[in-house]
Design goal:
Elements (H helix, E strand, L loop, with lengths): L4 E7 L5 E2 L15 E7 H9 L26 H7 L8 E6 L5 H13 L5 E5 L4 H11 L6 E5 L3 H11 L3 E5 L16 H18 L2 E6 L12 H5 L2 E6 L6 E9 L7 E7 L2 E4 L3 H5 L10 E8 L2 E13 L7 E4 L3 H15 L6 E7 L11 H13 L7 E3 L2 E2 L5 E2 L4 H10 L4 E5 L3 H4 L10 E5 L2 H8 L2
Helix pairs in contact: 9-10, 10-13
């Protein structure tokens, strides 16, 4: 290797740095993920000596707060996840599976912002201008304030940004970008880290909002070093089966808002369309009079979402019964079935059990425990639950039904969608009394244990 150069080893999964190659990464415990990359020692020495001697610390009381106005994207679902809109000078990372709709979503955001006469620069390192034009024609009419650039060299991109002075910059994708100061290939750990650092300086130094598209690994996390997610202000994940119609945008990290909110979109020929009432969308096609089906309520941030929990319990011909969970935690399903065996005396040990959250959505909130329990009981006893009945509550190992948060919002959502009975934890009845006048026409049934819930639905 040339004089003045050395090499280090990086984990491609988490970015762990080592002076020598190792079979297993000490950081993420993955095997065979270390790659060798050269490091210029002269550059490192300069970086250590760089710095400003005039830097001064400022007391907290001397800092003045200014309430900055957020830019709205005209996509209410996206604004909800971002915390109310786009913050000036923020760095936003959007990740998701290939073909899920990341580029389509950002192009729609570009269109809406350009129609507000906001200068937007869309930089693509994966597609040509003609390919972007084809997608844009499906979405609609664009304003002249949107400009496109196909480039992967960050030094060139920085010059274009300094010349054009856009307010919003879209980078698609960070794995295709490279800096001439780093000798490794685009998409490597060093390049991704260096590229993100340059884009962060552009965002913070010039007050430009930068959206970055990131590829994901087979485990569903953003490819590249973990430091990539630490450097950005907001991390959004686009979820859902690309063969299904709906998409879910989930905030994993947000320095300017809550990380519990989700946005629901439907993929159509003209692009992504907002789903204003996800509960009604998720419950469409629910069977009538079928056992093993019940409606439960989960909270995503401040939004209650009603979903159908399905269960199929049948006698097993295998030595070890089969258990399957789709849309919820597999271990949680096994735990709840053990509670039913112990507390209710149901002989589930010799039965196959399949639990599914209809619609392909994934929910892990403990409030859907009661829905899973009632769906399993309904299928085991082959007794249908009234289709106008909704339930929510966390189930403990003693068979008790524990309280959940925001009970009044859940009940109000059930009332709005026409449910006439709501099974909820008894301790939540006091919390619902504050909106009692708004709940006329819906029956509230408080239960303390899973036996109380079973006795009510299986009468």
């Amino acid at each position: 290797m040339a004089k003045g150069k050395a090499s280090v080893y990086f984990c491609q999964n988490c970015g762990y740095e080592s002076a020598k190659w190792m079979g297993q990464c000490p950081g993420c415990k993955e095997w065979n993920t270390f790659v060798e990359e050269p490091v210029d020692q002269r550059t490192v020495g300069k970086a250590k000596s760089a710095g400003s001697a005039s830097a001064q610390a400022v007391p907290l009381s001397a800092i003045e707060m200014t309430q900055e106005k957020r830019l709205t994207t005209d996509l209410a679902e996206l604004d909800r996840v971002l915390g109310g809109g786009i913050v000036r000078g923020s760095l936003v990372l959007v990740g998701g599976d290939p073909g899920i709709g990341k580029s389509t979503l950002l192009l729609q955001v570009c269109r809406n912002l350009s129609m507000q006469n906001i200068r937007v620069l869309y930089i693509s390192g994966e597609e040509s201008l003609q390919q972007i034009k084809l997608r844009a024609e499906r979405i609609g009419v664009f304003s002249e304030s949107l400009t496109l650039l196909c480039e992967t060299n960050l030094e060139t991109i920085q010059k274009v940004i300094d010349r054009e002075k856009p307010q919003i910059v879209m980078i698609d994708s960070i794995q295709t970008m490279y800096s001439e100061h780093v000798s490794s290939a685009p998409g490597s750990v060093s390049q991704v880290r260096e590229s993100t650092g340059i884009l962060m300086q552009i965002a913070k130094g010039g007050g430009i909002t930068v959206f970055i598209v990131g590829h994901v690994t087979k485990e569903g996390v953003v490819a590249g070093p973990r430091v990539l997610e630490h450097m950005v202000d907001t991390v959004l994940y686009f979820e859902g089966d690309r063969h299904a119609a709906y998409r879910i945008l989930r905030g994993v990290k947000n320095r300017f808002g809550s990380t519990n909110e989700i946005g629901v979109f439907e993929m159509r020929q003209e692009g992504l369309i907002e789903v204003e009432n996800p509960s009604e969308y998720m419950l469409s096609g629910k069977p009538e009079g079928a056992s093993g089906s019940v409606v439960a309520c989960s909270m995503e941030g401040t939004r209650p979402i009603l979903l159908e929990v399905q269960a199929l319990v049948c006698h097993s011909n295998l030595g070890v019964p089969r258990r399957t969970a789709a849309g919820t935690d597999y271990n949680r399903v096994n735990l709840l079935m053990a509670v039913l065996e112990k507390r209710l005396g149901l002989s589930l040990g010799s039965c196959d059990a399949y639990v599914n959250i209809a619609g392909g959505i994934r929910m892990n909130e403990p409030a859907i425990d009661l829905g899973i329990v009632l769906a399993v009981i309904s299928s085991y006893k082959d007794r249908a639950i009234d289709e106008k009945t909704l339930c929510f509550g966390e189930v403990g190992l003693s068979g008790e039904v524990r309280a959940v948060s925001m009970a009044e919002q859940r009940v109000l959502e059930a009332k709005k969608l026409g449910f006439d009975t709501c099974i909820l934890p008894s301790v939540c009845l006091d919390a619902v009394k504050g909106v009692k006048n708004e709940l006329k026409g819906i029956r509230l049934v408080g239960v303390r244990t899973v036996r109380d819930a079973m006795d009510f639905v299986i009468n």
